[in-house]
Fold this sequence. Notes:
Strand content: 15-25%
Largest sheet: 7 strands, parallel
Helix content: 25-40%
Structural class: alpha/beta
Order of helices and strands: EHEHEHEHEHEHE
Mean pLDDT: 95
Number of helices: 6
Amino acid sequence: MSKNVVITGANRGIGLALSKRYLALGYNVFSVCRNTSSELMALKGIKVLSGIDVTNVEDLKLFHEQLSHLRIDLLVSNAGIMSEEFLGDVDYDRVLRQFQVNAIAPLRVTESLLSNLKQGAKIVFISSRMGSLSDNNSGGSYGYRMSKAALNAAGVSLAMDLKSRGVAVGLLHPGFVKTELVDYKGNMSANEAANLIIQRIYELNMDNTGTFWHANGDILAF
Length: 222
């Protein structure tokens, strides 16, 4: 029987690449996005759930209704935003928006689908090395760093809370990927990153649940 994977932020970049790869691997893919794309719609066999803003409570209710009977093997929270803030010029509305999208929304998505998760399912948050407190040697980027650190904290708590259900939670830094988020300045393609992420997801289990990894397999410090 095919496994079911739900991926947020799937209209472009890493989310789109993951949708393609999991489709090729024989999964039933449910790709979630606020606005779809021609590339996503061209993927035959994928179920696209568009018009879903993961920060909107009413949209999440609709999202839950659309997936009400689905038994989920893998949930990947990939949707995220990034803006630059520098000391003396911090836009707090942008900081708050990054918290809403990068930290609060993944928890809300997870909680809305708790009853859909199979025993032994996996949850993955696409985090960032910039959320590491011990690895910060350049400062700045207040909203993004803070929101990704908060996402990591949520992931660790989820790993503890879901142990009894055999659900493993992974926090993954994808690397410096050529996506719109970083104006395509990365050192690897979204497809290359997706391949690495899928390998890490394959290795995720109850012994390493709640850990923070680089997609290349290195363990990262919080």
